[in-house]
Amino acid sequence: MTMSISNRRVVVVHWKNQQDHSFEIFSNLKNFCLSYPKYNYNTLNNYLSKGKIPFENNEVRVERKNIITQPKAQNMSSNINRRIMPIVRKVAINEANDVIRDWEYWLNQSSSKRLEAVTFIVSQSLAKGARLDKTVINKKPLRS
Fold first, then answer.
1. Which of 20, 65, 79, 135 is 20 to 30 Å from 112 at the Cα level?
2. Residue-wise pLDDT tens digits, 90-120
3. Where are the beta strands (DSSP E) in the chain?
4. Residue 125 — φ and ψ, nearest 5°?
């Protein structure tokens, strides 16, 4: 996949004299010049259109930048920054032994997380407005 740069551009204005070196982004040069009448549209347009050189003085740097609409290609091919690594376990269905794996998973979870999961499952099985019948209690001893 190649990087996609649209034909749309923005005007980036870097303010030099401010403590935080702030910047502003305008959709076009006209909006910048209307916001700051001190700067002449024709002068800035000549700078920015000829050789694409930014306008710069002691207080400001004005430049046009293309809008990048897709991720850059070099980042797409690299999995170094990937945060979620896929985990795949391929086994025959009769050898999966998921009951034991599930049991061990839930025993390793905190009691609050187990309670949250049970509450969620019960809430899915109840009709809207229905309440859980708390008169039936089945206790199972935990394996050690």
1. 135
2. 888 888 878 888 888 899 999 999 999 988 8
3. 5-15, 23-26, 55-56, 60-68
4. -85, -15
